[in-house]
Amino acid sequence: MIGLLASRGSLERLQIEQLGIGQLHWSTANYAPPQELALWDGLVAMYEQGLVRAVGVSNYGPKQLVKVHDYLKTRGVPLCSAQVQFSLLSMGEEQMEIKEVCDSLGVRLIAYSPLGLGMLTGKYTSSQLPVGPRGLLFGQILPGLQPLLKVLSKIATKRRKTIPQVAINWCICKGAIPIPGVKTVRQAEENLGALGWRLSLEEQIELEYAASSSPRKMIQNVFQTRYVCNALSSAQNSLPLIYFLIKTLCHAR
């Protein structure tokens, strides 16, 4: 099985005996349905052979998440995690439904891009954009983010924290495990400042209200189930493809 080969290869490269968790990066249900069950069986085999302590999935929509959970349960394998894009820029109906499903099934939600690829760091403005493909996406979203960035800055000042620390802490308060990308030791140290405290309920509501007022939302991963067919078949909206390029070329922060 591909899953076994991949996990054994990872163990050999890392020079360890067991991986903490093995995750499917996305579902093939929307473009190669016959592969899906084989991939799930790969998770089972990895778990049963002790190559991983736990298994999870990534970029699964709510319906497919329930399906893989139920299948693994019949095989005696608990689904540990579901990794999806989740942040103040990505808290739409679909993502919140995924969170609700995770809560009901006892699955931990892992939040990637908790800083919206950098848009929630306060580093960029509509007149100061990153170079390359990220600049195209930022240029469409950042102009409408000022209300949210102002609230983030206000709370950060009040709490003596940084804007990224507040944005990451919001994810933690929602029960998610954020995994912000880091390129420097300084960024890693800054991210640690999001731990050990919690936003008040009032602060969370204020942030969410400001986020909901943004006219443009973060585009979800093109391979997340429920998005695949529409994103790949529609030429009218290029943002999903831009985002896919971004995710391919850049670290998700």
From TrEMBL:
Keywords: NADP, Oxidoreductase. Residues 10-203 form the NADP-dependent oxidoreductase domain. The keyword Disulfide bond does not apply. SUPFAM superfamilies: NAD(P)-linked oxidoreductase (SSF51430). One of its GO terms (molecular function) is oxidoreductase activity. InterPro entries: AKR (IPR020471), Aldo-Keto_reductase (IPR050791), Aldo/ket_reductase_CS (IPR018170), NAD(P)_OxRdtase_dom_sf (IPR036812), NADP_OxRdtase_dom (IPR023210). One of its GO terms (cellular component) is cytoplasm. PANTHER family: AFLATOXIN B1 ALDEHYDE REDUCTASE, PYRIDOXAL REDUCTASE, CHLOROPLASTIC. This is NADP-dependent oxidoreductase domain-containing protein.
